[in-house]
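Folding problem:
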Amino acid sequence: MKLLRKPAAVAVAALAVTALSATTAQAHDGNHPFKNCTEAYENGYSNIAEGDEHYDDDLDRDQDGIGCDQPPSDFVPAEDQGKDDNGTENTASDTGEKNTDLAETGGSGATAYIAGGGAAVLLAGGGVLFTVRRRRDAR
């Protein structure tokens, strides 16, 4: 039974890493302070004043009462997210046009099949290793 412990632990760890890497960032619900300024900037918040529900002392390094007061150069305020360079609402997804504001991931309809095939190969390889070790130990 000791043979099953290590491969099973490796398989569980691999599944956990895969599951963690597949999760996406969730938007801040607004009911608590941001964890850090990166999260605030990603959600379109900067210059968070003391007393704001998003403010926390950890966000205000210079303790001047304004948190996350140095946004990155590509920062887009929450009010402007979803708008194009002209300040008008970006409705490219509604009209079927290509939205050039988003990064292309390279994914396609075949991505799920490729991932499934990879999982099948890993399972088959694990089965072969298991069988070889059992036969070797039986001798």
Summary: Strands lie at 48-49, 66-67. The chain has four helices and two strands.
